[in-house]
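Its record is quoted verbatim for completeness.
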Amino acid sequence: MKLAIIIPARNEAGSLGHVLQRIPTGLAVQIIVADNGSTDGTAAIATHAGATVVFEPRPGYGHACLAGLAQLSPDIDTIAILDADGSDDPQILPTLLSDHDLIITVRTLGLAKNNLSPQQRFGNWLACFLIRWFWGYRYRDLGPLRVIRRDALERLQMRDTTWGWNVEMQIKAVEHGLRIRQVDVPYGHRIAGKSKISGSLTGTIRAGWKILATIGKLRFCEHRPAHHHGPVSGAREGEDASRRRDR
């Protein structure tokens, strides 16, 4: 397995150095920081730590992810996407590497639920409920820390350039029959600064609307198969479905 880690970052100078330092030595062939228009020295910190820096001035989480993906070496076969704010501990990355196509983190361990804002908890619940209703797959979170096989990601043909990126990936993963694994992980506070999304009412509303709009677009506008099964019971429906596909 040859792993690349992509870290979208916008004005994360207060936390990025710590995040890069916490990545286990030798784990990744490439570490790419996608600087999304920072003005605080984020790029200099990334360069000093030995990461590759790619600049994407257009604001948007998806823009940053796509810019990072464009810098992948040809031999990379697995990609991890990691936030730059320190909320997820890079030390857990080795536990997420498996033969599944997509590994989604579920923020439940330790004080994770307390560290998620009420609007984050509600937004995650609503998005997961809608995916379960329209596509019949039970996700438990939209955890930003995720690992995906490169060939699987290429099949998804990701398009979103802002805050619909994660939900687009998870919906398309179901539509394309990827082998999905959900892993419970801890989740902390951001190390420095204020979240661009949950840190303000405006940011929360904009991100929430984008996520809902992405779900609606994928369900009703893009004419890919969306199998409606209604609500699905069972605490681990997502993992069970993945295991069925593995057989």
